[in-house]
Amino acid sequence: MSIPLLSEPESELEETKAPASDTFSRRTFVQAAGVLSAAATVGLPELAIAETPHTVAPQMADLILDINGTPHTISLDTRTSLLDALREHLDLTGSKKGCDHGQCGACTVLLDGRRVNSCLTLAAAAAGAKITTIEGLAQDDTLHPVQAAFLEHDGFQCGYCTPGQICSAVALLDEQKKGELSRVSFETGKTSNPSLTDDEIRERMSGNICRCGAYPNIVAAVRAAAGVQA
After folding, report:
1. Closest listed residue to residue 220, CA positions, set 210, 212, 229
2. Which pLDDT tens digit goes with each residue over 136-174?
3. Which run of H or E residues covers position 74?
């Protein structure tokens, strides 16, 4: 009868105990696999690349902008907005920078007679068009009828939005004369040469915000410029 060298519990423990080198290998493998899996999940390599700072040299372009009947030749970064070109490069500061997101209408100018938000219009895209700003509406010392109406009906308070309001109103009157329709035209069913009611004016001027709340006077000014009685 042989005598066991180890007691029974010690023998079982010895049998279940893995070699030190084997335990290290499995643990290392699990840890490495976890790190690699997490990196693949969150895209760490791509994130690191995206955060790497880099600069792109501006692409310049020579443009001819026809503004208020005068051609202007300027060299601009192709990313320059029409508003910045007017204000920062040509010193035509009548067009105002309000929200700079095309929501307030303070920067409204006319492009071939149609109103646009100059903050959302690339200067390069305006090349070849006839651009009209608030500075180009008056003829010498004679105000445009819309400008005169705004003065007569006190259609401004602080005046910051006024250039955009007036440019927008000038285009509005032209659109109405051409029979172009608004949402109100369809809602009222008056789609055949709709008259310029106050509701029509409010709807057609809704892209221009007046933070002073001079809306009643603005509507009155547009109505007067259109020759419409209240």
Report:
1. 229
2. 999 999 999 999 999 999 999 999 999 999 999 999 999
3. strand 70-77
Is residue 227 classed exposed, middle or buried when 0-12, 13-18 and 19+ CB atoms within 10 A define those classes?
exposed
Give first-to-last CA distance, the chain, whole Å. 124
Pull the structure tokens for residue 203. 């709807």
CA dist 53 → 44, 47, 49, 79 (Å): 16, 12, 9, 20
Query: Residue 154 is which amino acid?
Result: D
Tell me what the pLDDT averaged over the chain comes to: 86
Alpha-carbon distance values, 124 to 32, 61, 119 (Å): 53, 8, 13
CB 115, CB 108: distance < 8 Å = yes
pLDDT tens figures, 83-108: 999 999 999 999 999 999 999 999 99
Among 211, 194, 212, residue whose Cα is nearest residue 203: 194
116: tokens are 């646009």
Q: Return the CA Rg of the chain.
A: 35
* CA distance linking residue 98 with residue 177, whole number of Å: 29
- Number of Cβ atoms within 10 Å of the Cβ of 77: 14
Relative to beta strand 108-111, strand 60-67 is: unpaired
- The whole-model pTM stands at 0.76
Backbone angles phi, psi at 117, to 5 degrees: -85, 110
- 3-state SS class at 65: strand
